[in-house]
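@here heads up, posting the sequence + SMILES for the zinc ion run so it's all in one place. Ping me if the SMILES looks off, I pulled it from an old spreadsheet.
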Amino acid sequence: MGNWIVLKHGMNCDADFKLSNGGLDWAIDCLVVSGSELAITDSEKRMIVFLSERNTSTLGLGVAGFELPDMPWKAETFEADRAFLIRTAEHAREVMQKPETQQMLQYSVEPERVNEQMDEFIALFRCMTADLIVPEAESNWFKWHKPDDPTLNSFPKCRRHGVLYGCDGCKICLDQSGLFPVMPADIERLKHLWEGTQES
Ligand SMILES: [Zn+2]
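bot reply: prediction finished. Complex structure tokens:
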């Protein structure tokens, strides 16, 4: 088991890697916190939202990995979006060492581990090429988003953590949901997560 982050299944790229559940959760936090700060265009924001949804608490243990063509790439913005993801991983090294980030996440990761992990993401992002884009990846991804989902409504950010909302709300709020009794009012339908009842 383990969460595989790969260029593409079957291609056996040297940059493919596997993360434990805890490892995936903090590694994705690095990218989501950093990328939420840097993302300007809609396609950049979509990349970060996609990443924030790779969450073991919503997808399940050992199955939150992905292959790069699953991401919502578009041919028109491919180069810019790949450069953005590399910049995001670079920026994460610095962001993750800030006391305010550590306070917000309520944990810290040693700089060496963050650096090694971001190196792995950067190496993999560099392997992504435009010919691997799956034209329907973006629309397939949007299919699991309901009309009132934040992704389809101007990409709001969590007021508490400043990170872009995914279809399950803020990844950091989800990680810490036992600590916060109030769901941000932006996403009414997700209140059950905070109120402890199950959505039917
Ligand atoms: Zn939050």
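MO: Residues 158, 160-161, 170, 172-173 surround zinc ion (CB under 6 Å).
MO: One more: The chain has a mean pLDDT of 86.
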